[in-house]
Design a protein that fits this description.
CATH topology of the largest domain: Alpha/beta knot
Number of domains: 2
Helix content: 40-55%
Structural class: alpha/beta
Strand order of the largest sheet: 3-2-1-6-4-7-5
Order of helices and strands: HHEHEHEHEEEHEHHH
CATH superfamily of the largest domain: SPOUT methyltransferase, trefoil knot domain
CATH architecture of the largest domain: 3-Layer(aba) Sandwich
Length: about 230
């Protein structure tokens, strides 16, 4: 589909939603970013998996990369509250080493892989550099990230804590990291926003998700264009 065709389809779709809802979509999408993304490796508790998605939506992180090695990523609708339809979810579950496949894919796109762990040579969250695109990688609730993830990460980050407990729940950790980095990014002079073409593509997907029978409407629309 050409850029012009996408623009015309967007105009067509907007007639099926209210002006107020369209305005709200525009308000949200200008705050979306792909400057940093979230990677989840083998998360198996649906409540935590869903809570992370909800936080991604709240803090403007558009892409979530989901690695399924041993565990299938399951969502709890009572927790995620429909947040998944606003996000681009990329799953890695077809390879012998899905973790490596995900890491290689992100590195080719220019992302630094940042492993979240209290071990290794982790820098405190507030010291993490955000000048270039990066991917925050979170592991399972009990074991953390796998050795493959840690061995192929570019950097390591931790949330400073002063209590006896060594780590936080993954959904809490992800929310804290995203809140801090989201604020830091928006206070910087870094160009963290989406391109006009990315905005167009994402908004089209949002409209497809919220408009009843959007697939039928889209087919009928293009039939009339022939």
């Amino acid at each position: 589909m050409t850029l012009t065709e996408k623009e015309n389809l967007l105009k067509f779709f907007t007639q099926f939603i209210t002006e107020e809802r369209n305005k709200r979509l525009d308000e949200v999408i200008v705050n979306r970013t792909r400057h940093f993304t979230v990677v989840l490796e083998d998360i198996y508790q649906s409540q935590n998996a869903s809570a992370v998605l909800r936080s991604c939506d709240c803090f403007g992180v558009q892409d979530v990369h989901i690695i399924e090695n041993k565990n299938k990523y399951k969502l709890n609708p009572d927790v995620e509250l429909g947040s998944s339809k606003w996000l681009n979810m990329h799953k890695y579950n077809w390879n012998a080493s899905n973790t490596l496949e995900c890491i290689d894919t992100l590195k080719k796109k220019g992302y630094r892989i940042i492993a979240t762990t209290p071990h290794y040579k982790s820098v405190p969250l507030e010291e993490l550099k955000i000048d270039t695109p990066f991917a925050l990688m979170f592991g399972t609730e009990i074991d953390g990230l796998t050795d493959i993830a840690l061995q192929n990460a570019d950097e390591f980050v931790k949330i400073p804590m002063v209590g006896f407990t060594e780590s936080l729940n993954i959904s809490v950790s992800a929310a804290i990291c995203m809140h801090h980095l989201n604020l830091k990014l928006r206070q910087s002079d870094i160009n963290w926003k989406l391109s006009d073409e990315e905005i167009l593509e994402i908004k089209l997907n949002w409209l497809r998700a919220i408009i009843s029978r959007s697939d039928v409407l889209e087919r009928e629309y293009f039939k009339k264009q022939v």
